[in-house]
Structures are given as structure tokens and as C-alpha cells.
Amino acid sequence: MLELSWLLIAIPLAGAALLLVWGKGADRFGHLIATAASAAAFVLGLIMFVELIGRGADDRSVTTSLGTWFEAGRFHVEFAFTFDQLSSLFVLLITGVGTLIHVYSIGYMAHDARRRRFFAYLNLFVAAMLTLVLAADYLVLFLGWEGVGLASFLLIGFWQHKETAAAAANKAFIMNRVGDLGMVIALMTMFATFGTTSIAAVNGAIDSASGSTATALGLLLLVGACGKSAQVPLQAWLLDAMEGPTPVSALIHAATMVTAGVYLVVRSAGIYDASEIARTVVVIVGLVTLLVGAWIGCAKDDIKKVLAGSTMSQIGYMMLAAGLGPAGYAFAIFHLLTHGFFKANMFLGAGSVMHAMDDDVDMRHYGALRRAMPITFVTFGLGYLAIIGFPGMSGFFSKDKIIEAALGYNTWIGLAAMIGAGVTAFYMTRLMMMTFFGEKRWRDEVHPHESPSVMTIPLIVLAAASVLGGALYLGGWITDWLEPIAGHAEHPHLPVPVIVVQLGVMAVVALGVAAGVWLYRRDVPDRAAADADVSIVTRAGRHEIYTNEVNGALVVLPVRYLTRLLVWLDARGIDGTVTGTADRIGEASQQLRRTQTGYVRSYALGIFGGALLVVLGLLAVTLA
Amino acid sequence: MIPAAQLDYWVLSPLFVVAGFAVLGLILEAALGRRYRFVVQTIATAIGLVAALVVSVLVYGDLRTPEEAGHVARGAVEAEGAVTVDGPGVITWIMLLVFALLSLGLFAERRFEAGMSPFTGRAADIPGSDEESQAVQHRLEHTEVFPLMLFALSGMMLFATANDLITMFVALEVLSLPLYVLCALSRRRRLISQEAAMKYFLLGAFSSVFFLYGAALAYGYSGSLNLTIIDEAVSARADSGGLLLVAMAMIAVGLLFKIGAVPFHAWTPDVYQGAPTPVTGFMAAATKAAAFIALMRVFFVAFGGASWDWRPTFWVVAVITMVFGSVVAIAQTDVKRMLAYSSIAHAGFLLVGFSAAYVGIANEAVLTSVSSVLFYLVVYGVATIGAFAVVSVVRDSAGETTHLAKWTGLGQRSPWLAGTFALFMLSFAGIPLTAGFIGKWGVFAAAWAGGTWPLVVIGVLASALAAYFYVRVIVLMFFTEPVGDGPTVAAPGVLTTVVIALAAIVTVVLGVLPGPLLDIVQHAGAFVR
Prior knowledge:
The complex is a heterodimer of chains A (624) and B (529).
Chain A: H1 5-22, H2 30-54, E1 62-72, E2 75-83, H3 85-108, H4 115-134, H5 138-156, H6 163-194, H7 199-205, H8 211-229, H9 237-240, H10 246-255, H11 260-267, H12 269-273, H13 276-299, H14 303-323, H15 329-356, H16 369-372, H17 374-388, H18 394-409, H19 411-436, H20 453-468, H21 477-486, H22 498-519, H23 527-532, H24 536-542, H25 547-570, H26 574-582, H27 585-623
Chain B: H1 9-31, H2 34-62, H3 66-69, E1 75-78, E2 83-86, H4 87-107, H5 130-137, H6 145-161, H7 165-183, H8 190-222, H9 227-235, H10 242-259, H11 267-274, H12 277-302, H13 307-330, H14 335-355, H15 369-393, E3 394-396, E4 399-400, H16 410-413, H17 415-429, H18 435-449, H19 453-479, E5 488-489, H20 494-512, H21 515-522
Antiparallel strand pairs in B: 1-2, 3-4, 3-5
Helix pairs in contact in B: 1-2, 1-6, 2-4, 4-6, 4-12, 4-15, 4-20, 6-7, 6-12, 7-8, 7-12, 8-9, 8-10, 8-11, 10-12, 11-12, 11-14, 12-14, 12-15, 13-14, 13-19, 14-15, 14-18, 14-19, 15-17, 15-18, 15-20, 15-21, 17-19, 17-20, 18-19, 18-20
């Protein structure tokens, strides 16, 4: 069975192809095909996982090759997939949560004319994401990497009638290209150093390379991870990506794709183990993102953007853990899984709320929804308890472990992570208070109602997973399970007993909750009043810490001016003339003819100048 | 007495077949009645191309193996030293013939213009005059385009395999002159078309003079025009050789002009925009391929011994070409101009592979500069012809609508057509699973192996920049609501459909299964000296 990992990818891919090729004829039942494809992949993944558990501990990595992708001399890329401890967990997460979100979307997208296309893209995404996590070669991984980027691009811009959606899709694609630069250069470095891009071979041979190679590879892969996982400084696209339909935000921009960066770091454990510097940078990136994301989460009024800031922040935790090396890899994956449950749950819950509120995302227009939407309230509430780390909930175990490991690594980093937990508790409480408690602030035409059961059942399942996800840590199961990949985790040496740390975290969280309840206990002012007089901290948070402005000043403006300069050097208005006249040839023909020789003359001058430069260049190189 | 030349007619036969069918086309032009000309010419050209293709493949099989020819190359110098029939050369022939066959499909498409070809009915008429409308009324057509194309093609094939500078110069002119004429023959927007041809002609003549002057200086330096003998002189030199440097620079200028490298690119956007779209596609794919192979041949064979003198200059040219093409393309509002700047950027990426001058490891098939450039030329050329084929389909009442603003919402109106165009854009941008990714990977890998890693880093950066405007087109087609009247897509005829479909299939297949073609280009070996 374990040799069938290619089939996991093939099923959703076939679903996507079928829906796209079939065309309008499949409009009525396309969503069912897509959901069935995703569910079939889940069932297959489950069977394979059970078989994997049944195997001996050292026999749990099965690599299947479909043949050679391409070959260039000694350089050889196998189209191979590895089903092992790490990828099997991801397969279950992607197909499991993915299937639930497919089901949910049946209801959520019921009235969308392009629903079939939406489901085709969803299936495409699932296939690409599975390629990413199953790949046995960095180049195949990169294929999945670009594939999820493409699916994400298509889905962010899915509501094409919204101009902001198209802009957001564009932004996500471009910022991811910046991350991909790191990936491509890393691939080139691997190719040049090891003559291969096989994940196992590169990580196995890293000790034979120089330390600086490991550092370079680690940093370059981190650039890629930052782009995909919305980590500082490439985080700005994630908030805009909320323009996509909410199930997309839940699946791609919360549970799966954005965690690909964490997966990449853990999968490249060999590289990171060999470079102290690279790991330190990962820790710093994770820590900064954790705090920045939480800050943004505190200041936004748009429910999806709060959740997006929170996603950034939680992935920051995972990155931080992954940067700790063997002490943290398993916990990074653990938190990734539990986060996948509770964040997907809350995003879908937010979608349910939006559904009830006529697609209004402003929490200032919510309030007192707990009575109108009891199921959404309860499931969302369980997700809330999980994310703040209420004892016994999944997030309690996974986040606590990361904070402990961070404390063992460095006291200050551990304390900062603790503060992050407190801030998380604050902004999530704020969200709960503004949405479900307090007075009604609904606009007149809105009549909230509970969503249909096709939407609430996935919510219930995910809420159950959010509560019970901590079971993965029963008896240290997940660390033992991942040990062959992540290496043996020493227990962190803490300055104080573990129980003190746990109590401390709980105290900070309680403080955050209390602050949230206290500040939002009374009514929430409407937008005008809210904007009037705010502190600089809040304003910065609302503007996403001015990262868009920084990007604009550092990247967009220089490129824009470079473009203008080059265009000016190149054409000096020819563009306008030629294209302009193309439509009214007759009247402008005389003028055009007159200008034409002039241009040829200047072109010829350009060639002459270029020739001079080439001559001088050659002479300079040789005679210098 | 001058002894008769000893020619091995068999290995040279692809050249003879193409040139022969070009001459046959002229005879048909004179002999046939107007009614039959178009169809007969199309069929005759197709037969000629297929025959030449078959012969080329057979010739490739007959080439001396690397073991017989020396350890890194296959093939031999033929025709008294004037022509080299070697692995890269014959692969270039095959590539050019494939490009020509695809372009022929566009040349012969008569569906869009009410049953007439995309070329003007009577080129001598003044645009907008009564004579012109008469010509349209009488349904006149220039069927000379087919022999012209074959002549240009024969020039390109000779250009890529010429082993002395005079043969190369003759080939340069043989390929250029028919193209100048073809550029002027657009049925619509004839003034722009004629302007483009005029510019192309003047600047082409200007740049070939540089080439000729360089050839003369090279003769002065080495006492010969034969690349092999120049190589001997260059390799044996003791001084820095100022004469040699200027000769190399002048020849480089002439060739860089043809491939459209900055700062010799200025003609590209105007000519690509003005020429009839089928010609643009043919020119963009085939001229660039032929000129690039010629450039590599001259600099690897004749000036290979001085490679450290010319490499830095080409590095600089590569960098400014990549960056310039990618950046300026962002500002374009016309599809054909955008594709022109994109072709400039691609010339830059190709130069990265070339200027690394990586010759590989003896006795082992690896991705060398030559083989990676060959692969890139194939994938770039096919996608380019496909993209221009799509351009020829998107039309309104005034002919093709190349203004990008008119392309908004194309994806909603005709998802298949927009989808294939998006595929070509993704391939140009180098996204995995398209052929463009493997192509970029190849040239960058060769450059990296050749030790020019800074070029690779800049190349990757530039390709990210270039991805921006390719994706912008996709966004425009799929995610933007059409303003006012969107484009009307003319139902493409069978020929255009076949061309677009073939180009799309090749682009996907070479992205998913590049193995066979990579294998072929790797075993093509080096240039024969």
C-alpha cells in the first residue's frame, strides 16, 4: 500500500482536471466529485498511515519513484515521493481538513455561479500541497511549492469582480516570487555542491560540505520559507490574501499552505543542524513574526484580518520551535497540526458569521451573536480556548511545549514567547467579545441566522479536533514518532521547574483574557469614534506596522523609477506615438513618416554607442 | 586553374532541399494561375520543409560519432572549410525547420481576413488608396511570401553552420533581406508595417557593416576568414592583440544586433509590433535561434582561445539585457511590444548560458553552455510562435487588437485560448512543469557550473521581475472585468488551432518530461573546430 503515495496526488489532480475539462456540464455535481476526490485521498492516506504504524520504527520511510524527471549528465532528478512519519502526518492534515473544508464550501459557495471552478482549484491545491510534502527531491518539492502558489493565486483572486481581490492575488504572487528566489538559488547551490537535489542525499551529505555552505543553504531556504509562510519581512501578502473566499483562507492561508515553510525547515533538519547561524536566524524570524502578528491581531477590526494576524503569529511560534533544532522540530510539527485544527475551525466559524451578516467582516457591526448562532458560537469558542492554551485543550500542550523549549534555549526568547501567549489571549478575547457578546450592533437589513448543517458539521468535527488534538502528545507519542526525522530531543534545562513555567504561562494568558474582557465589557464604539483618537501603537497595528509603506519605499518605488528611467532612455515617447497612431493611420501618416527617420537615426546612434562600449569594454578587460 | 570544390552532397542536403524548394516556389509563382497559387505554394512549402526535416534527422544519425571526430564533438567541417556540419549545427537545422513548419501554419491561415492571407494583397499600393481597395476587391494575394520564407530559412540554416566569416556574412544577408520584405507586407496597419521594415532594413544594414568590418580585422589579424585558422592564430598569440580585440568587438556587435541584446535592441519592439504577426513569430523564434548559434560558433570556435578577453564584456551585456528587457516590459501597453521586450529579456538569459562558456567534462554528457542554450532556444521558440499565434486570433473589426487594455476579460470569454496564452506566459516566466522552467534551469545550471554564479543570481532576480509582467497579463485576462467592449475572438481556423495546440503541448511535455530532448542536446557535443 505504501507505494501508492503517487495515487494520493493523482486522485485530487484528476478531480481538478475533470472539473476544468468537463466544463459547464459538470456545474450541478462538480462539487460532489471534488469532495469525493478529497475524501478518497484522505481514506487512502489513513489506510497508508495505519500500515505505517504497523511497521517497525526503522522501516517507516518508503520512497517510490515514478521514473526520471530529468537528467543532465550526472545530475539526476527522480520523480519520487517519500511516505514517512513526517509526510504521513501532513497527508492526513491536508486531506482531512481539506475534505472538511470541501464539505463546508458546498454550503458556503452554494450561490456562486462559478462554484465548479472553485472546487476544481481546491482540488488542484490539495494535489499540489500533497506533492510538496511527499516530494523526495527538492526540485519536486519546488514543483509543489509553485503549484500551491498558483492555486493560492487563483483562489485569492477568485472573486474577480472585486478589484481588491485581483490586486491581492497579484501581491501574493509577487511576494512569493521573492521567496522563490531564495529557493531557486538554494537549489542551484545544492546542485553545484552535491550534484544532486535529493532531500535525503543533500541532508546526508551536508557534513562533507563546508559550514558556510550549510549556512548559505539554511538562509536561502529560510527566504523561501518566509515568503510562503508569511514571516517577517515577507509577511505583507497574507492580510491582503483574506480577499479570497473564507474556506480558502481556512485551508490555504491558515491550516496548510502557509505552514509549508515550517515543513521545509523541519524536512531540511540536516542542513539546519549543521549551521548554528541559520538556526539562530530562524529563531529570530520566528520570534519577530510571533510578536508582529500578535500586534496586528490586536488592532484590526476585520474579523478575517485578526485571524490572519493570529496565523502569522502562530506560525512564528512554529518557526521559533523549528529554529531550536532537535529540541523543537517535533513541537513545531505538533503545534502545526493543532493549529491546523483550531485555526481552520475559527476561520470557518468566521465564514459562518459572515454568511449570517451578509458578508460584512467588520466586527464593529457584530455583537451578541451567541444567541443567534449557537453552534457557531460553541465551536468557535472551543477553537478560542484551544488557541489561547486553556488547560486540556490542544493548544495548551503544543504551545506550552514550545515555550518550554524556548526557555531552555534562551531565557529572554522564552519570556518573549510567553508575552506573545498573553497578547494572543488578549486579541482573541477581544474578537470573542466583539463578535459574540455585548450589544447588537447589526446594521438594519441584517438578520443573522445559524448556517445550514453542511457548514456546521465540519465546524463541529474541527472543534472536536481542536479540543482533542492534544492527545497526539499522550505519552510523548509525537516526539517518539518523529524522532527518526527530527532527531532525539533532550529535555530542556529550565531555570525553574516545569510546573512553574506552566503556571506562569497560564497567569499571563489569564491576564490577557481579563484585559480583553475588561476593555470590551461595555459597548464598542462605531468606526468614526474608533478612528478619532487612538494611540500610535494602535494606529501602527492597524496599518500592519507600516510594512506596506516600507515595502513601497524600499522596493516598489525604486523599481518604478528604474522602469521610468529605462523607458525614457529607450523610447522617449515612441511608445505613445506608435501605439497612438496605430489606430488612426490615415491622418497621422505624414507626421509619422517624418518622425520615422529621426528614430532610426537615434537607434543607429544607440548601436554606434553600444559598439563603442563593447570595443572599450574588451580593450579595458585585456589592457587593464 | 581553380580546382572544383569537393562537396559531400549528402550532409549538406538539408540546405539544398530548402533552397531548392525556394527556387521551385519562384517558378511556381510564374507558372501557375492565380487561383491555384496559394494552395499549391503552401503545399509545396510544407513538402519542402518536411523533406528537409527528414533529411536533417537522417544526416544527424550519420554524423561522425564523438569517438571518431575527437572526444567532445561530432560531425566534421565540410564544403572546403566553408560549412561545419556538426551536432549543434544539425540540431539547429531541425529546430529551425520545426519553427518554420509551425510558422507556415500561421502564414497560410486565411480564415481571419475573409478568406485572404494575413499579407497585403498588393504591396505596391499606397496605403488607403483606391488601388488598395481594388486589390482587396479582386482578392489579390502575395504568394511570394512562401518562397521568401524559405529563402530566409536557408540563410538561417547556413548562418548557424557557417565555418568562415564570409559564408556567415552571405548567410546573414540571405536571411535578412527576405525578412525585410516580409515585415513590410502586413495587410492591416500597413504604414506601421512599412515603417518597421524600413527601420529593420536600415539598422540591419548598419549592423552588418560592423560584422563585415570585424571580419576584415580578423582577416588582418590571422590571415584567414576560416574560423578554424583564426582559432589557430588566436591560440598561438603572444601579445594582447589590439587588432584581435577590435575584431571580436565588431563581430559581436553585428551578431548581438540580430539576437536583440541591449544596447542593440532598439529595433526589436518596433519591428515586432509592425510586422505581420506570423512573420513576427517566425522572426522571433527562428532568427534568434540561428543568430545565437552563429554567435556561439564564432566565439567558441574562432575566439575560444581568447575567451577570457571577451567573457567579461558578455557578462555585462547579459546583465543589462536581462534587467532592461524585464523592467521595460513592465511599462508596455501593447501585447506585441511586451513580447518583444520579453524576447530581449530572454536573449539576456540565453547570454548567461553562453557567456559562462562551460564546455563540460570530457567524455561525459553534461549540460554545457551549448546544450543548455539549444534546449532553451527550442522551448522559447515554440512558446513564442504559440503566443504570437494567439495574438493573431484576438481581433476586432480593425484587425488584431494588440492593446493590452482590450485583452481584459479574455479568460471569461474564451477560457481555452486565454488558458493557452497563460500557459505560454508561465513558461516564459519559468514556472515549474512548463518547459520554460527546465530551460532556465539549464542555462543557469551551465552558468553555475562555469563559475559565473553572480550572473545566475542576477538572472534569477531578473526572472522574478519578469514574472511580474507575465502574471500581470494573466490577471488581466482572468481577473479583470472587461471595460466596454472586450476583445472578440475570431474563431481560429484549423491551421492556427493546430499551431496553438502543438505549441501548448510541446510546452507542457517538455516541462513534464524534458528527459528525451535534454538527452539529445547533451549528446550533441561541442562545435567542431
